């Protein structure tokens, strides 16, 4: 029999969960990707995608098609689907959706901040923003002309204000490395999202906590990998690590002291799943990189989320798989 929490979830969110599970059936299959690989021009994918759930989403696009156009239209289609579900969501699902969108908001805000500090055209930067991360307060960032204006716009006007408070001050904004800022924002965001899912409990916590733990650990490994040969010191590394993963605390401490990939791998050897993943990383050109391996594992975790019912994780998993 269903427990009370599952019954309540079915009453409040059952329709939306069923809708998303139906949308999952429209994801591109392995055969679709095989067909797409064989395409010789950008017109060929347009013809093939008409037979999938994407339908005639490129019908209004003038020739010649570009990769940028196809990517933009795909994102718009995903955005319409997400907005439809989000607009009908009740609490706590609506808050869950807000957390989901925060990752895209972070990328957009950092992109806008970087563009503002480099005196780039607002229109040029906006075209590169992800539609899932757009929000009305972005206009306040667009019109900021000084670091002081930018700080106030970000801290006061955006939904990301809680994540910014621990990451920067008005005096340091102009000198702040934009990638360090991005990593600090993601750290704060992932920890908050993880806490929300854990407090939610039930199946949502059982599905989402491992997914977010993996994301936290993945970011820690990638941060270290990208820090080799840079000015990022071993003392500065821990401030960028999300602390909601299985590596916390001992693994993160060891990871901060790593000087090369081999030392990273020795840290991963202490954790079963990561030991297996690191063993599949290739050394030569054309072989799987660490990011490729992490990406494949993330896809598997999101697919497994659909094996359970009555939880918010299916919404997160669908968006990630659709991307």
Please provide a written account of the structure.
This protein has 323 residues and is mainly α. Helices cover 63% and strands 0% of the residues. It is built from 16 helices and no strands. The chain has helices at 4-24, 30-37, 43-49, 67-87, 93-117, 122-126, 138-142, 147-157, 161-164, 178-200, 202-227, 250-256, 261-268, 272-279, 290-304, 313-322. The longest helix has 26 residues, at 202-227. The radius of gyration is 21 Å and the shape is globular. It starts with a helix and ends with a helix.
Number of helices: 16
**Shape summary:** globular
Distance separating the two termini: 35 Å
The average pLDDT value, as a whole number, equals 88
Catalogue the unreliable spans.
none
Q: Assess the beta-strand content as a share of residues.
A: under 5%
Order of helices and strands: HHHHHHHHHHHHHHHH
Largest sheet: number of strands, sense, barrel closure: none
Rg, nearest Å: 21 Å
